[in-house]
Write a structure and sequence with these properties.
This protein is of the alpha/beta class. The chain contains 12 helices and 8 strands.
C-alpha cells in the first residue's frame, strides 16, 4: 500500500514538474529579452539601432524571422514566434530599419532597400548568434530579404524557409499599389482621415510613428516601382545559382502577389540540390497566420535536414 502511495506521489510530482516546465517555457516566450543592435558601429552619421526580441531557450536552434513591408516583428509574427519558441527554437525577432521600435533617421526607400535589409540582417546575426548559423524564415519582403541573405552570406545561414516570395517585383504587386496606395504628395489626412484609410493609417502611425509612416507610405511604392521598371528582378540569376544552403521555397496557392508560376520559375533557378518547393493549399500570402502548423512542420523538416 505504501509503495502504491509512493508511486502515485512520484507520478503527480513529475506531472506537476512537467506542467511547470511547459508554463515556464511559455512565460519565457512572452517575457522575451530585448536588445538594440547598432547597424553602423562607429559611424558619426548613421547611428541606427535595430530593436530585437530574443525568445525561447538559449541553446535552441536559432531562427531569424524577417517581417514584411510596413510590419514589425510582433505584428507579422507575434503568435507564430511564440509558438516556435515554445517548440524549442531560439527566435530572433527584429524590427527592420525604419520600422517599429528600431531607432533610425527617417528612412527613404530606394531600389536597393532589400539589399540594405539583407546586410542589416547579416550584422544582426553576427551580433546575436556569432558562433552558430541561423535558419532564416522570411515573409513577403522579408522572404526576398532572406533570399538575398542566403545567397550572399552562406557563412551565416544554415538554411531558409521563405514564403510570399518570388525573387522579383510582380505585375500583381504593382497593380495593387496603383489601385490602393496614395501617390507621393497626397496629404496625410487622405490616408489616415475619414475617407476609408483611417483604420489602416492609424494602425501604421501607432506602429511606426507619424514621421516613419509618412516616409514609408510615400517612398516605399516608388522604390518598388523603380525595381519593376528595371525588369523586376530583386536578385540576379547569377546570385541565385550560387545559393549553397537549403531553401524551402513555400507558397500559398492563393497568394495574390506572387502567382504560382513566378514562384516555380524562381525554384528552377535555385540549384536543384538546395531547393525544396512546398505548396500550401487553401492559403494566400500570409502563411504564418493562415497555416502556422504547416510552417512549423516545414521548419522541423529543414532542421532535421541540416543537422
Amino acid at each position: 500500500m505504501k509503495f502504491t502511495h509512493l508511486v502515485i506521489s512520484v507520478f503527480f510530482l513529475s506531472l506537476i514538474g512537467i506542467i511547470g516546465l511547459i508554463g515556464y517555457s511559455s512565460i519565457q516566450a512572452q517575457n522575451a529579452p530585448e536588445r538594440w543592435i547598432s547597424l553602423n558601429p562607429g559611424s558619426w552619421t548613421d547611428d541606427t539601432q535595430m530593436y530585437t526580441k530574443l525568445l525561447g531557450p538559449k541553446d535552441g536552434t536559432p531562427v531569424l524571422l524577417i517581417h514584411g513591408a510596413w510590419g514589425t516583428g510582433e505584428s507579422d509574427f507575434g503568435d507564430f514566434s511564440r509558438e516556435l519558441a515554445n517548440a524549442g527554437y531560439r527566435i530572433i525577432l527584429p524590427d527592420l530599419r525604419g520600422y517599429g521600435k528600431s531607432s533610425s533617421p527617417e528612412r527613404i526607400f530606394t531600389a536597393g532597400y532589400l539589399n540594405q535589409d539583407a546586410e542589416d540582417m547579416a550584422t544582426l546575426i553576427r551580433a546575436v548568434s556569432p558562433k552558430k548559423p541561423v535558419i532564416v524564415m522570411g515573409y513577403s519582403d522579408g522572404g526576398e530579404t532572406g533570399l538575398l541573405l542566403t545567397a550572399h552570406h552562406p557563412e551565416l545561414v544554415a538554411g531558409s524557409v521563405l514564403w510570399g516570395t518570388s525573387g522579383k517585383i510582380t505585375k500583381e504587386l504593382i497593380d495593387t499599389f496603383s489601385s490602393t496606395i496614395p501617390k507621393s504628395g497626397d496629404p496625410l489626412w487622405q490616408i489616415a482621415g475619414d475617407d476609408g484609410w483611417k483604420d489602416w493609417g492609424d494602425t501604421l502611425i501607432e506602429r511606426h510613428g507619424e514621421k516613419s509612416f509618412n516616409s514609408a507610405i510615400f517612398t516605399y511604392p516608388s522604390a518598388v516601382q523603380a525595381i519593376y521598371d528595371k525588369g523586376g528582378a530583386i536578385i540576379s540569376d547569377e546570385d541565385i545559382a550560387k545559393i549553397a544552403r537549403p531553401v524551402f521555397l513555400t507558397y500559398g496557392v492563393k497568394d495574390e502577389y506572387n502567382p504560382t508560376a513566378e514562384v516555380e520559375a524562381l525554384a528552377k533557378k535555385i540549384p536543384v540540390s538546395q531547393v525544396t518547393v512546398k505548396k500550401i493549399e487553401n492559403s494566400g500570402h500570409k502563411l504564418q497566420t493562415e497555416q502556422p502548423s504547416a510552417l512549423l512542420t516545414i521548419l522541423k523538416e529543414l532542421t532535421q535536414k541540416i543537422q
